[in-house]
Design a protein that fits this description.
Elements (H helix, E strand, L loop, with lengths): L1 H9 L25 H13 L1 E2 L4 H4 L14 E5 L5 H11 L2 H4 L2 E5 L12 E2 L5 E2 L10 H13 L3 H18 L19 H12 L2 H19 L22 H6 L8 H11 L11 E2 L4 E2 L1 H13 L17 E2 L1 H20 L7 H17 E2 L4 E2 L2 E2 L4 E2 L9 H5 L4 H9 L1 H4 E2 L2 E2 L14 E3 H13 L3 H22 L5 E3 L23 H14 L15 E2 L18 E10 L2 E9 L5 E8 L6 E2 L15 E10 L2 E9 L4 E8 L6 E7 L7 E15 L2 E10 L2 E10 L6 E2 L17 E4 L4 E2 L4 E8 L5 E9 L2 E8 L5 E2 L3 H4 L7 E9 L2 E8 L3 E8 L3
Parallel strand pairs: 2-3, 2-4
Antiparallel strand pairs: 1-5, 6-7, 8-11, 9-10, 11-12, 13-14, 15-16, 17-38, 18-19, 19-20, 20-21, 22-23, 23-24, 24-25, 26-27, 27-28, 28-29, 30-32, 31-32, 32-33, 33-34, 33-35, 36-37, 37-38
C-alpha cells in the first residue's frame, strides 16, 4: 500500500491539465482573479488573531467594556475543577512580572450570575479570535475559522480549537457563545462534530478522537433536552438561561447619540405598529419598558448567532417559541457525524445515531419544509404554523444533507430571491437589522454554496462563490482589510447608515470571512493549471498494439473477454476479467502474468453465477487489496436488474459472496440499476469510500459516491450524482467509474469511462478532495484515451475502450481495458515528468 501511495504521489505533478473540468451545469470553470495578496493577508492574520496564555495581557482586556479602570488588572476566571496552582506556575513561566500584574486569577463561583466583575474565562490551548471588538474564542465563528486553518495547513491551531471546546464542555457545561463570563448562559450553533472530523481526517489520531467522545455526548444532550428541546415536538430551539439585558449590549452597542440597541428598540415599539406578534408580551407601553420576555428572546437570539433580524418577528424577540431551521439541520448533521465517530471508535451505540438523524429528518420535513413556497421556514410552536420569512438558513438542510433531491431543486429555484451582486442576502427583507437585507455574511455564503454543490447545482454554487470572493477582493484592494460583513447589493464593506439595529461598526480581521474565502476559492480553482503538466499524458498501447486477450473456444469465453480487473501480488499480475458466452451470460475468468503483458488463463471461470440475484451473469469486476484480504465489486445481473454486489477472498480464487451492497430501484437518488463500484482502499474521515454508477430520475448512468465503516455495509453519501452527465462532452450519456481510485497529494484521482451522445466510449479523469471525497476539485473536459484501433472500434459493442484495471509498473502505470466488449488491451502512461 505504501509503495502504491508513493507511486501515486509521483504523478501528482502531472495531475491537473490546462483546462479545468466542467459540470453538467457549467461547461467552463469560473475564473478567479489573483488572490495571492489576500492569501498572504489571511496567512498573517492567523498569527495576529491567535491568543494563548502567553498572550493573556492582550486576551484579557475586553474591547466591549469601556469603563474598565486604568491600571487595574483584568480578571481571568478559572473553572472550579482547574488547579489554580498549576495555572499560576504555568503563567509565571510564560509571563514577566509586568505582564502578570495586568491580570488577576479568580475561581469562578458556582452560579454564573454570581460573577460581580466580568472577565475572561480560562482556556488551556491557543485559539484564534474573530478580530475587532471580538477578542475571545467564539462558538460558531470558530468553525469557519477552523475551516480556513485547515485549508492553510494550520492543523495544530485547528486541533487546539477543538481541544478548547472540549475543555469548555467539561468545565463550563457547554460550548460557550464566547469565553467571557457574561456568555456562560448560552451556547451558539453546534458545529462540534464537524470540527472534530476536520481535524481527525488530517491526523488520523484515534486516541485523540476517543478523547472527544464524552464531550460530543454531553454537548448533544445540551441541545436535545429542555429547555432547548421543544416538548412534544422533538425539535430543538435556542434558549439562553440568563435573565435581563445582555451586558455586552449595554456596554458597547451604542450609536453616535449614545443610545443602546435597547433604547432604539423601545423607540421602534413606541412609533410602529407590530403585527408579527403580541407586542404587549415584549414591551410595556405604559411604562416604556422592555419586558423580561423580551430580554429572554434577545439573549436567545444571540445564541442563534443571527442578532438581530426580523426572522422571528421584530428584533427576533419571539425566538424561544420557534423551532428554527438552522439549529435542527445542524443537529441532524451532528447526529449523522456522531454516528460516524462512534463507528470509528467501535462503540456499541453507533447504530443509534443514524436512527436519531432519520427521525429528525422526518420532523424537519413535517414542520419546517414549506411545500407551497419551496423553502424551509421556522416553525412557531404556539401558533403551530411556519413563519413565511424567506431567510438564507433555508440552505442549511441542503448543506446538512437533510433535503430530498426534490426539496433541493425547489430551494435552488428560489435562488434569485437571495442572490445579489456580492453573494447571498441574509434575508429578502430590508428592516434596518444587520441580519437582514442588504447584508451578507461569510458563513451563509459557505453554507449556501456547500448545499448547492451537494445536490449537484455546481454552476450556481460557483457563481455565488465567485461573486462573494470578487466582492471581498475588490474591497480588500480598496481598504487593505477583510471585515465581518458586507452590503452584498452594493458590493462594499461601507455600510453607511443602513444598520439601525445591532452594531453598525464593521469589525476588521476577520476570522470567519478569512476562512470562508479560502474554502470558496478551493471549491472553484484550487490549483493553478499553468504550473502543471497535462495529466495521464501519452498513453501508449502495449502488446504490439493489439489485444492481450481475445475470445476463445466454444465455452464460457466464446463471445467476448473484456473489462478486466488487475492486481499485483508480489511479482505476479493477477487478472479477473468478464468472460461472456454465446448465450450472453457472463462469468469471471482468471489469468496470471509475470510481466503484465503475457497472461496465462485458467481453463475454468473463477467466479460464476450462483445466487438468485446474479443468475444471468456476474460482470465488470474491480479489485482492491485491504489488510491482506481481496475485495471484489461486481455487477450482479438476474435478467431484470443489475445490482452492485461484493465478494471477498484471501487468495483471489476462492470467493465468499457478501451480497448486494447497493440495491437496484432504490436509494437517495438512484431509481433503477447500480453498477461499477470502485473502492478507495484508504480510509478518509474514518470511512471507506466507493464511486459507483447508478440511474438518476433526470438521467441514467451517472456517477455517485457511497461510504462504509466496515466495507460490508454501504450507504450513499449524497442526494444527487457526484459526476453528472455533461451535454456536448465525451461523457454526455455515461459517467462510469474505472479502476479503484488513487490518493495523491493533489487529491483523489479517479479514472472513469464516459460515453458521448453516439455511445462512443472513451476515458477521462476526475480529482476529488482528499479530505472530502464528495467534493469535485477538477474534471477533464476531453478524454485522455480513445478507441483508435480496428479491434477497439469493431466488436460486440463498437467504439469502446473501457478501463477497469490500473497497476503500477516501475516508472509507469499499466491501464487494462476492454475493447469493443470483445477483447482486452493494455496501455501505459508515465507516472509524471
Amino acid at each position: 500500500m505504501m509503495a502504491q501511495r508513493l507511486a501515486a504521489v509521483a504523478i501528482a505533478a502531472a495531475l491537473i491539465c490546462t483546462s479545468f473540468g466542467a459540470t453538467a451545469q457549467t461547461p467552463a470553470p469560473v475564473a478567479l482573479r489573483d488572490l495571492r495578496p489576500i492569501r498572504e493577508y489571511i496567512k498573517r492574520s492567523w498569527t495576529a488573531l491567535t491568543r494563548s496564555n502567553r498572550d493573556l495581557p492582550a486576551a484579557a482586556p475586553d474591547p466591549k467594556f469601556h469603563d474598565h479602570r486604568p491600571n487595574t488588572p483584568w480578571p481571568v476566571y478559572l473553572p472550579a475543577l482547574e488547579s489554580r496552582a498549576r495555572v499560576e506556575t504555568e503563567l509565571k513561566q510564560l509571563l514577566g512580572p509586568d505582564d502578570l500584574n495586568t491580570i488577576v486569577l479568580r475561581t469562578l463561583p458556582p452560579p454564573p450570575q454570581a460573577v460581580s466583575e466580568p472577565g475572561l474565562l480560562y482556556l488551556p490551548r491557543p485559539y484564534v479570535v474573530p478580530g475587532g471588538r471580538f477578542n475571545e474564542m467564539y462558538g460558531w465563528d470558530s468553525y469557519f475559522i477552523q475551516v480556513g486553518l485547515l485549508r492553510d495547513d494550520e492543523v495544530e491551531r485547528a486541533r487546539d480549537m477543538v481541544d478548547n471546546f472540549v475543555y469548555e464542555i467539561t468545565n463550563y457545561g457547554t460550548i460557550l457563545n464566547a469565553n467571557r463570563t457574561y456568555y456562560l448562559t448560552r451556547s451558539q450553533p453546534p458545529f462540534l462534530t464537524e470540527m472534530i472530523l476536520g481535524v481527525f481526517e488530517r491526523t488520523h489520531d484515534r486516541a485523540w478522537l476517543e478523547g472527544t467522545w464524552s464531550a460530543v455526548e454531553r454537548y448533544y444532550r445540551f441541545w436535545t433536552t429542555e429547555p432547548h428541546l421543544v416538548p412534544g415536538l422533538g425539535l430543538s430551539r435556542y434558549f439562553d438561561i440568563g435573565e435581563g439585558p445582555a451586558p455586552e449590549v449595554l456596554a458597547d452597542e451604542r450609536d453616535a447619540s449614545g443610545q443602546t440597541h435597547y433604547d432604539r428598540v423601545r423607540e421602534y415599539y413606541r412609533t410602529h405598529e407590530v403585527s408579527d406578534y403580541d407586542v404587549g408580551r415584549f414591551y410595556d407601553r405604559a411604562a416604556d419598558r422592555l419586558t423580561p420576555l423580551f430580554y429572554k428572546g434577545d439573549r436567545s437570539m444571540r445564541e442563534s448567532g443571527f442578532d438581530p433580524s426580523n426572522r422571528f418577528g421584530p428584533f427576533n424577540a419571539d425566538i424561544i417559541h420557534y423551532a428554527p431551521v438552522c439549529l435542527n439541520a445542524l443537529l441532524y448533521r451532528m447526529e449523522r457525524e456522531a454516528g460516524e465517530i462512534a463507528a470509528v471508535l467501535g462503540r456499541p451505540d453507533a447504530g443509534e445515531w443514524p436512527a436519531r438523524a432519520a427521525a429528525r429528518r422526518g420532523r424537519i420535513d413535517r414542520y419546517l419544509w414549506d411545500p407551497a413556497s419551496g423553502l424551509y421556514f421556522d416553525y412557531n410552536v404556539e401558533t403551530r404554523r411556519r413563519r413565511a420569512y424567506p431567510f438564507a438558513t433555508t440552505f442549511y438542510p441542503l448543506w446538512a444533507g437533510a433535503a430530498s433531491p426534490q426539496q433541493a431543486r425547489r430551494v435552488a429555484a428560489n435562488l434569485p430571491a437571495f442572490e445579489a451582486p456580492g453573494g447571498i442576502l441574509t434575508s429578502t427583507r430590508v428592516t434596518g437589522n444587520q441580519r437582514d437585507a442588504p447584508y451578507g455574511w461569510a458563513p451563509l455564503q459557505m453554507i449556501a454554496v456547500g448545499g448547492l454543490r451537494r445536490y449537484g447545482y455546481r454552476a450556481e454554487a460557483d457563481r455565488i462563490a465567485a461573486k462573494f470572493i470578487d466582492m471581498v477582493a475588490d474591497d480588500f484592494a480598496a481598504h487593505g482589510t477583510i471585515v465581518e460583513k458586507y452590503d452584498v447589493r452594493r458590493r462594499t464593506s461601507d455600510l453607511g447608515a443602513g444598520i439601525r439595529f445591532g452594531y453598525a461598526a464593521n469589525q476588521i480581521g476577520f476570522g470567519w470571512t478569512n476562512g470562508v474565502v479560502l474554502e470558496l476559492a478551493a471549491g472553484l480553482n484550487p490549483t493553478t493549471a499553468s504550473s502543471r503538466a497535462p495529466p495521464l499524458a501519452e498513453w501508449v498501447r502495449l502488446g504490439s498494439g493489439g489485444p492481450i486477450l481475445s475470445p476463445q473456444g466454444d465455452g464460457f469465453e466464446a463471445a467476448g473477454v473484456f473489462n478486466p480487473a488487475v492486481i499485483r501480488r508480489g511479482r505476479e499480475y493477477v487478472m479477473l476479467y468478464r468472460a461472456q458466452d454465446r448465450a450472453g451470460v457472463s462469468r469471471l475468468g482468471y489469468a496470471t502474468s509475470t510481466d503484465g503483458l503475457n497472461f496465462t488463463r485458467r481453463a475454468d471461470p473463477v467466479f460464476v453465477p450462483e445466487a438468485e440475484y446474479e443468475r444471468r451473469g456476474v460482470e465488470d469486476p474491480r479489485l482492491v487489496e485491504i489488510d491482506g484480504q481481496y475485495w471484489l465489486t461486481y455487477t450482479a445481473y438476474d435478467g431484470t436488474d443489475a445490482q452492485l454486489a461484493l465478494a471477498t477472498s484471501a487468495d483471489l480464487q476462492h470467493w465468499q459472496r457478501r451480497g448486494v451492497i447497493l440495491p437496484a430501484n432504490r436509494g437517495r437518488w438512484n431509481v433503477h440499476w447500480t453498477k461499477s463500484g470502485a473502492i478507495l482502499p484508504t480510509k478518509i474521515n474514518g470511512r471507506y469510500w466507493m464511486y459507483y454508477m447508478a440511474d438518476a430520475a433526470a438521467g441514467a448512468d451517472q456517477l455517485g459516491v457511497a461510504e462504509s465503516t466496515d466495507l460490508l455495509h454501504w450507504t450513499e453519501s449524497l442526494d444527487a450524482p457526484l459526476l453528472a452527465r455533461r451535454p456536448g462532452f465525451f461523457d454526455a450519456r455515461v459517467v462510469e467509474p474505472g479502476p479503484p481510485p488513487i490518493v495523491t497529494d493533489e487529491g483523489i484521482l479517479l479514472i472513469y469511462n464516459g460515453a458521448d451522445d453516439r455511445l462512443v466510449y472513451s476515458t477521462g479523469w476526475a480529482i476529488f478532495d482528499r479530505r472530502d471525497p464528495t467534493r469535485v476539485i477538477a474534471r477533464s473536459d476531453r478524454p485522455v484515451f480513445e478507441a483508435e484501433r480496428v479491434w477497439e472500434r469493431i466488436g460486440q459493442v463498437p467504439n469502446v475502450v473501457f478501463v477497469e484495471g490500473l497497476v503500477r509498473d516501475g516508472g509507469r502505470w499499466l491501464a487494462y481495458y476492454g475493447a469493443a466488449d470483445t477483447c482486452i488491451g493494455v496501455a501505459a502512461f508515465r507516472a509524471g515528468r
